[in-house]
Amino acid sequence: MFITLEGPDGSGKTLQIHLLEEFLxxxxxxxxxxxxxxxxxxxxxxxxxLMDHQNKNMxxxxxxLLFCAAxxxxxxxxxxxxxxxxxxxxxxxxxxxxxxYQGYGHQFDLDLIRSLLHFATGGLRPDLTFLLDVDPQTGLxxxxxxxxxxxxxxxYVLQYHQRVRQGYLEMAQADPQRWKIVDASRQPDxxxxxxxxxxxxxxxxxS
Length: 207
Ligand code: TYD
Fold this sequence. Notes:
The chain is an alpha/beta fold. It contains eight helices and five strands; from the N terminus they run βαβααβααβααβα.
């Protein structure tokens, strides 16, 4: 079972995913919880290049390929082995982030990005994806006030982040079977209880 959390910066994914990990582990599931880009030796090095403020002149095409490269490594080295063992994989961002940030955000040809992602992931798709939806202004303010680290992507203009959010909503609405939209502007415990409820009903439908 492969579950991803997606959403604009500052949507609180990181806190929520760790709470979900705790919850699923307590329920007796074997869980691997990771984040993108990163979680392999090679992926963490690519992450540093992507996030470094000094790399201000990185072209969006370079950026896209680097995210895909880190992901290709993660799929082969980590995700596939866990999934083959029957673990639950919980991932903070995956291919849909590239669709949202590079495809919709930078306005690249979406079909082209889709093909690139297919190549990078070998076609591995999540079974369930949560969209933690929050408007970009609120998300970025949360981040600056002391949430996560402020990265190179956060410095893109607000319109960019608005396109990212619209992209997410469009993808989620096009495939409601896989995507579940959760309003992340609410208190973290309320968001978490929605996530758990959806997840439990998803898991019980499988068995
Ligand atoms: P991170 O610090 O992990 O942010 P967050 O807590 O919001 O997930 O940084 C990841 C940044 O990289 C975030 O701004 C989203 C961006 N990103 C892309 O642009 N494309 C991608 O494919 C991925 C995985 C992330």
